[in-house]
Amino acid sequence: MTVPYEQKIRSQTPATKSRAIPRISLHDYEARKSIIQAQIIEAAENSGFFILVNQASPSVSEIEEVFDLTQSFFALPESIKAETSFIRTENAGWESKSQIRPSTGLPDQKESLSLQYHRRHSGLWPSHPALPDEFHPKISEFMVKSHNLGMQILSCFALALGFPEDFFSKAHVVNVDDAQSTLRLLHYHDITGSQFPPSYWRAGAHTDYDCLTMLYQRTGEDGLEICPGREAHTSFGMGDQWTPVKAKTGEIVCNIGDMLMAWSDDRFKSLFHRVRCPSVGENQRSRYSLAYFNQANKNVEIQGPLGKYPAMTAHKYLMDAIKRNYGQLEKMKATQNGTSA
Ligand SMILES: O=C(O)CCC(=O)C(=O)O
Ligand SMILES: [Fe+2]
């Protein structure tokens, strides 16, 4: 059942439903390419979320290394982290408990650092001497490996849509000025002993604005939940039952973002997802995750093969998506105050 967004926000039902999330092994990719491609396309059409396992790159030890570096960044004093504070117009830098989701109207209980590959030598990346020497080279290398894998996945979608195989690679060039792909390092604070009211989330329900998100998690640090039931990339309809996704080190949880949903004329589904605050009695220690957002370059034109939506640049797409989402927040606040927006 699809429930209007405004009602959904109010009820914040804790109901969960176990659903099978497709698990796709990338083992022996070249020899098994056509099988893997078919599995990925089917997962994007029917599920929106899927889990990649057995990828050659990035390896489990490379992922673990990046988690260690992530922990060392977030362990720095706030005054040092604030030297590269978040700049909204650039989608770059560090923020703490400041991202307010339209679905909750409350700040996410997390801190994050957003980085773009082409800015690795700029002041938008932290460079304090207290950071490990490997921070820059290892994180940059990890971004390249995530990007390359992302392009492999996007090539399956290109073929399914009738575009050339390298169509999305040409749209996602990460070492030029108008690149938008972003790695977000995430730290959900240790909340041991605290019981948050049900309206508080580590990350409130949202969809991603990019083409393809690749999420790395660590075993034992659960909390991600997904919700099927969205028919159009512009809608706020979501189902009413959430499915937890178990975290496992080395696996990559992939989800379609709104940009690819639009680019595929709504064929590939971008779903709402959220991260819950664990209750007393559960693991309430810190949770870390790494989200790599494959997002087309600003000047790329987006239009699906069926032309369901007018063509627009990836930059305008993003600006419109932000306006739509935050307009939703204003509408919700006005409804709560008994006025109409
Ligand atoms: O940390 C997670 O599990 C999810 C993060 C997420 O959905 C996001 O940053 O968009
Ligand atoms: Fe997300």
UniProtKB/TrEMBL annotation:
Residues 178-296 form the Fe2OG dioxygenase domain. GO terms for biological process: small molecule biosynthetic process. It comes from the Eukaryota. Keywords: Iron, Metal-binding, Oxidoreductase. Coiled coil: none annotated. It holds the Pfam family 2OG-FeII_Oxy. GO terms for molecular function: metal ion binding; oxidoreductase activity. InterPro entries: DIOX_N (IPR026992), IPNS-like_FE2OG_OXY (IPR044861), IPNS-like_sf (IPR027443), Iron_ascorbate_oxido_reductase (IPR050231), Oxoglu/Fe-dep_dioxygenase_dom (IPR005123). Belongs to the iron/ascorbate-dependent oxidoreductase family. This is Clavaminate synthase-like protein. It comes from Morchella conica CCBAS932.
